[in-house]
Design goal:
The protein has 153 residues and is mainly alpha-helical. It folds into two domains: 77 residues, 434 Repressor (Amino-terminal Domain); 48 residues, no CATH class. It is built from eight helices and no strands. Helix 2 crosses helix 5. The protein starts with 5 loop residues before the first helix and ends in a 10-residue tail after the last helix. 13% of the residues are buried.
Length: 153
């Protein structure tokens, strides 16, 4: 039987239950942190108190309008874990070496831009925009590796 490294064993699985769990966990944390009742949450969702309880329990799927209302109200607190789940379960992800190369390419381009006058001009940013954006995306991917903050019980 082939040996798997720890990152292969720990890789998140994108499934309906993992999505519902991510949303339910986030909503429960928001409810506790903000001292909300299911009635309060139902008002945000535009749904019944019973449905708000089911969303928090991770036992009911939301329609897109309800999801958008929750996202508008709580932003990253609500959908941060779901975003990480979506990202971490993508079938094709850049290797760390590729990410680091993108970051270093941008650092080199900015370093070269500084050589002539110790300033990075808008023209130099524009000329290196693609490289800078790739580095930004690579940094975002590295930051997503951090574990999500745990909600207080």
């Amino acid at each position: 039987m082939p040996q798997r490294n720890s990152s292969e064993r720990e890789r998140a699985v994108f499934s309906a239950s993992s999505v519902l769990d991510a949303v339910g966990t986030a909503l429960t944390a928001i409810r506790i942190e903000d001292g909300l009742t299911f009635t309060d949450m139902a008002a945000v969702f535009g749904k019944s108190e019973d449905m708000a309880g089911k969303y928090c329990a991770g036992s009911a799927a939301m329609d897109v309008v309800t999801y958008a209302r929750a996202r508008r109200e709580w932003n990253g607190r609500f959908d941060g874990a779901l975003d990480r789940l979506c990202h971490d379960t993508r079938p094709v992800a850049d290797a760390d070496r590729n990410r680091h190369s993108k970051i270093l390419r941008a650092a080199l381009a900015l370093s070269v831009a500084l050589e002539d006058d110790d300033e990075i001009t808008p023209a130099e940013v524009r000329a290196n925009r693609g490289t800078i954006e790739q580095a930004r995306d690579a940094l975002d991917e590295l930051l997503r590796k951090l574990p999500a903050p745990r909600a207080a019980a």
